[in-house]
């Protein structure tokens, strides 16, 4: 059964420019029963993760770009854009508040050992943000107060994302271990570094 109509059936320039055919062919639930409630829920789960990965990859591109600019004003604009992406990633997690834990449990075995804990992009983004000056300036460089504040806001945004993710995980799997083999909640709690008071 065709679930999604071909986005560039008429070869619109919009679809060609965004390469929608390729993009919209990538949501492939492993649930066999196409169009069923479980298939729909698994597709939702995949679409949420894929769109988060696209945003995370853009945030890394932005930080790499900021590192090339010696001008504080331009760098602050880029860092604020990354801050806006992180704020969206945080809100984006709330989408999965609309996935029933029981439904997730039904298709979770299909993930095998796949886990967000294996996301290279999130790992690279979070560790970059934890580096001195987020590596947009050398560690010992003097930075303006505005840039320092913009960079501190990124660290706070990562903590907010982690807290929201922790609450999501708690609702979804409780005390169960993660699919990447960690003990789940305890591990995720250990990653949350609250900023000093
Ligand atoms: C049903 C929803 C989710 C559950 C149950 C879940 C569960 C987990 C668990 C248990 C871990 C620890 C590693 C492991 O042993 O698997 C983890 C890590 C992680 N997950 Fe999720 N997750 C969910 C949704 C998401 C979403 C939507 C994203 C966004 C792409 C995401 C990204 C990550 C990242 C980046 C980590 C590494 C932890 C960090 O650096 O803070 N997860 N997840």
UniProtKB/TrEMBL annotation:
InterPro entries in UniProt: Trp/Indoleamine_2_3_dOase-like, Trp_2_3_dOase
One Pfam family of this chain: Trp_dioxygenase
Molecular-function GO terms, alphabetical: heme binding; L-tryptophan 2,3-dioxygenase activity; metal ion binding
GO biological process, one term: L-tryptophan catabolic process to kynurenine
SUPFAM superfamilies: Indolic compounds 2,3-dioxygenase-like
Name of the protein this chain belongs to: Tryptophan 2,3-dioxygenase
């Amino acid at each position: 059964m065709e679930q999604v109509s071909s986005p560039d059936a008429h070869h619109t320039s919009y679809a060609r420019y965004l390469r929608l055919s390729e993009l919209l062919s990538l949501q492939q639930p492993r649930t066999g029963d196409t169009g069923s409630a479980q298939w729909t829920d698994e597709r939702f789960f995949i679409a949420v993760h894929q769109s988060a990965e696209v945003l995370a990859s853009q945030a890394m591109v932005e930080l790499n770009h900021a590192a090339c600019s010696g001008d504080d004003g331009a760098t602050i604009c880029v860092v604020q854009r990354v801050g806006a992406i992180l704020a969206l990633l945080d809100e984006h997690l709330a989408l999965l508040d609309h996935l029933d834990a029981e439904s997730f449990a039904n298709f979770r075995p299909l993930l095998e050992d796949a886990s967000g804990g294996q996301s290279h992009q999130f790992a690279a983004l979070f560790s970059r943000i934890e580096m001195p000056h987020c590596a947009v300036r050398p560690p010992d460089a003097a930075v303006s107060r505005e840039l320092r504040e913009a960079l501190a806001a990124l660290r706070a945004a990562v903590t907010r994302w982690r807290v929201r993710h922790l609450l999501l995980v708690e609702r979804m799997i409780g005390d169960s271990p993660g699919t990447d083999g960690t003990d789940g909640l305890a591990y995720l709690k250990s990653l949350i570094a609250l900023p000093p008071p």
